[in-house]
Structure formats: structure tokens, C-alpha cells
Amino acid sequence: xxxxxxxxxxxxxxxxxxxxxxxxxxxxxxxxxxxxxxxxxxxxxxxxxxxxxxxxxxxxxxxxxxxxxxxxxxxxxxxxxxxxxxxxxxxxxxxxxxxxxxxxxxxxxxxxxxxxxxxxxxxxxxxxxxxxxxxxxxxxxxxxxxxxxxxxxxxxxxxxxxxxxxxxxxxxxxxxxxxxxxxxxxxxxxxxxxxxxxxxxxxxxxxxxxxxxxxxxxxxxxxxxxxxxxxxxxxxxxxxxxxxxxxxxxxxxxxxxxxxxxxxxxxxxxxxxxxxxxxxxxxxxxxxxxxxxxxxxxxxxxxxxxxxxxxxxxxxxxxxxxxxxxxxxxxxxxxxxxxxxxxxxxxxxxxxxxxxxxxxxxxxxxxxxxxxxxxxxxxxxxxxxxxxxxxxxxxxxxxxxxxxxxxxxxxxxxxxxxxxxxxxxxxxxxx
Length: 431
Description:
Blueprint: E1 7-15, E2 19-25, E3 30-41, E4 50-59, E5 65-75, E6 81-92, E7 97-106, E8 111-119, E9 124-129, E10 140-144, E11 146-150, E12 158-161, E13 167-173, E14 182-186, E15 195-198, E16 202-207, E17 212-214, E18 219-220, E19 224-228, E20 233-237, E21 248-251, E22 255-259, E23 264-268, E24 279-282, E25 287-291, E26 300-302, E27 314-315, E28 323-327, E29 340-345, E30 350-353, E31 356-359, E32 364-368, E33 377-379, E34 390-392, E35 395-396, E36 400-404, E37 413-416, E38 419-429
Antiparallel strand pairs: 1-38, 2-7, 3-6, 3-38, 4-5, 4-7, 8-9, 8-37, 9-14, 10-13, 10-37, 11-12, 11-15, 13-14, 16-32, 17-18, 17-31, 19-20, 20-36, 21-30, 22-23, 23-28, 24-27, 24-30, 25-26, 25-29, 31-34, 32-33, 35-36
């Protein structure tokens, strides 16, 4: 005797979180029909957020995905609701096809999270934001894309919180509204498993052609890259035979001649062993001069933190056994062209790198957990610390080179509760 398929009604009611969130995935052996869906503007302000409903169909044989935007960027007035679908949207999971529903909301007041301290016994999370959060005690909020590491005994190494999506209430803030960057909220206990915050986890998508250029002019197109926000390490897969070396040595100058007219400094380091392809960097304040401007009365350590060479790997030229030249001005001539006289140099104030690399702006593409991996982000941005600079090689393998591009504490988003999603789904078992 055949058994008729069982129909089951589901109601989904969740807050709309910042970024993109998964609402529903069709279970195995089920065909689902989305009968109704709406988003309400429940915020206390008078803003007009927008929302998009996405039907993502994935080919299970190839992994290719197609986003079908059921509705895109519909505006929701205050104290009103938008009906996203009122009819039938058939969803399925077969050996060939996987259907999922996603929601993407855009609203005001979204902030970036930089740290979360989670006290598991009480379920209280203390959240720090990059900028003032502007929350009051009692405000309902949503959060998304927060990466935690928990004990290995759980069987889970990394979790993305919250899952499933829900709203929370601000219990306490540090300092005053408008200046506070820290608030606490009860997010629930994790049954005895402490959790530790991670910056956003990045996933390599692709690299633009010739994204990496070495100090010798050789160019590479990375086939893969990993970035760790805690350490700032970027590991670039460049292929076998890349020829890069990671060793960095330090040296002490015994004399320096500086020409403010040409911007060239000639440095004496006995038997330095440098070659014209090497890069050097001066520690801030490591070379001291007097100058004619005050009749050589006072000492002036260079480079200052505001000077062109500060923190930069510089090319060298006219290399001899004991000397080399480096351009230490970006604007030539200097605003003061009087005579400078060498006084002293700090020990090991010059670093030499065998290999350095420059990474072209916006050339390496990642997604990250901060927005649910919904959008692509190109690095380095023009505002990033090492944009347009040569970077020393920290370590190498036969196929990779590791550089430090600076740490990033950000990982997760928080916003006032602005929108709520409601849907009705009919599941029909195909078993």
C-alpha cells in the first residue's frame, strides 16, 4: 500500500540582519512552495530601509549558482510592510538542483564589530564597535557575521553567530550615548562551551593578472591567497620556482651624506654585501644630523614619522663595497636646502630585505564572513596601510610567499532592529 506524501506548513519569522542572510533551504526529499512572504518596518525611527528577496538555485553537479531576484531593493516606509510574494514559488532539492532563499536588507545605523567577549555561564556578550554605536539601553538590535572559535570537544572549530538569526536587547552601555563603543546583551548560554571572537574570516575568490610585483620587476598572478586578521599575515600562492627569499638583515651606518637638493642620501656601511636589487628601510630616528638652519646647534634624528622614508622599503643604487645611495625625498628639492652634517646612527637602524613585493591596489579579491560572504571585496584598498608600498617577505615555501599587510580586528555587523521577515511555506515530502 502506497503512503501519500505528507504536507507540512512552516512559518518563518526572523529579524532582517545587516548583510545577506539565508532564510530557508529545502530539506532532502522535499518540494517546498513559498506561499507568502513580507517584510515589516518595525524601527522606531523614520527611515526607509530597502530589502531584496533572492531565490538562489545551485547546480549540485557543477556548483554553479544563479541568483533569481524575486524582488530587488523595495523600499519599506515606517510602520508599514512590503509583500514580497503572494502566490506560489516552487522550491526543490533533487540530485541535480538545490534551492535556497536569501534576504538582503539595507538600513541606517549599521556598525562594524571589532571585538566580542562572551561569558558563557551567563550568556552575556560584551560587544565593541569600530565607531560609536548610538544605542540606548533597551534598544532592540540585530547582529550578523560574528566568527567564534570554540573548544574542540564540541566537534565544531568555527561558528558564525547568530544562526539562526534573532534579535537582542541592549542591556548596558559603556560611557554615554553618542560616544559609547561598547554594549552588552544577553545572547544565551552555549551549554558549557566557551567561545572566543575571531576577526572576519576571508575566502579567496580570484586575483587580477600580475597582481604581485617583486623588487626585481618580476610579476606573479596568485592562484590562491589566505589572510589571517589576527596576525595580519597574507599567504600568496605564486607557484614553484618563484625565487623569493625571506631573510632580512640589520646594519649600522657609520656615516651619511645627505643632499637636500637631489634628495639622495649616501650611506656608509662597511662590507654591507648589498646588491642593487635589495631593498632597505631606515628605522625612525636612526640617522642623526645637524643643519645650518640653526647653525648646527641641535641634533635632528631622521626619518621622522611624517617623513617620506618612514616605514618604507626603499630602492638603492650606486652600490659599492661600503656605500649605497637611496632617495629619501618624495618632493625634490627639499623646502630647506642648507647643509646637513652627520652626527651618529643607532645600532641596527637599517634593515635589508633580499626580496620585497608590491601588491597592486584592488587586485586580490575575497569574500568574508562579516556580510555572510555575500559580496566581493578587492584588496588592498587605497586606504590600507601597505597600499602602494613594497613589503618585506616574512617567510617562503617552494610555492608560497608570506607578507604581513596589517591586522584587522573587524568581524561582524550590528544594527538597530529595523525590519522583520515573515513567510509561510508548504513542504511536500517526495519520499
